[in-house]
Amino acid sequence: MEEQQIMEMEKILAANLRAAELEARSRMSSLAAEERAKSEVDLAALRAEGDLDLERWNQSAKLYSEREELRRDQEMADANHQVNLAEREAERQRILQENELQTEERKQKSAMEMFDQVQARKKERMAMEADREQNRIDAASKGSESIIATLTEIAQSSKDPQVAMEALRQLSEIRKADVDAAKDAYIED
Asked: Do 67 and 150 share a domain, yes or no?
């Protein structure tokens, strides 16, 4: 657009220069009235052409200015639209985070309630297990003597060293369990 404007400005300038030259010639020369009339007609034609070129240039500049203004308006509208979209997205994210926070708080509250229930059940279960353990210890004490005797016999009579070692390991574990059970029984009493 600028090259076209420059060309039109040069054209106007050239027309104005021609007009100035013609006017200068008509003043300086002492030509006959016919020559002067001819020059004035040419000068008037050049002025009219210059005025027409100037009007074209003005219209072209106005059109360019209007297009630029429309482009700027469109860019502003696009920018405002993007800002509105960003604000809506930010609000949506805030609401989602708020909902997630509320959901998380409900989950935590529910988890705490469940934990309390589990702890209460655990206490009940531990009491029941303590009773069962005492019963088991009593029963184990009665049954462990025969198991100990059997494992002792296996350890002594086995020809396979691995079997003998396993029998001794199990015998050791049974003895340890009996001792631990006896300690626990005395601690709980």
From this structure: no
The residues, ordered by sequence, that sit 6+ positions from 168 with a Cβ below 8 Å of its Cβ are 151, 155
Q: Do 130 and 96 reside in the same domain of the chain?
A: no
Q: What is the pLDDT of residues 54-88, one digit of tens each?
A: 888 888 888 889 999 999 999 999 999 999 999 99
Residue 28 is predicted with a pLDDT of 66
String of b and e for 128-157 (b: at least 16 CB within 10 Å)?
eeeeebeeebeebeeebeeeeeebeebbee
Split into its structural domains, the chain has a count of 2
Q: Which of the listed residues 78, 113, 148 is the one where a domain comes to its end? A: 113
Confidence of residue 189 (pLDDT cuts 50, 70, 90): very low
CA dihedral 56, 60, 65, 71 (to 10 degrees): 160
The tokens for 128 are 């029941």
- Looking at the fold, whether 141 and 52 belong to one and the same domain comes out as no
Domain coverage including residue 172: 126-188
133 and 164, same domain (yes or no):
yes
Which of 113, 145, 180 lies at the terminal end of a domain, its last residue? 113
Confidence band for 181, pLDDT divided at 50, 70 and 90: low
User: Which helix or strand (DSSP H or E) is residue 43 part of?
Assistant: helix 33-157
Average pLDDT, integer, range 160-176: 83
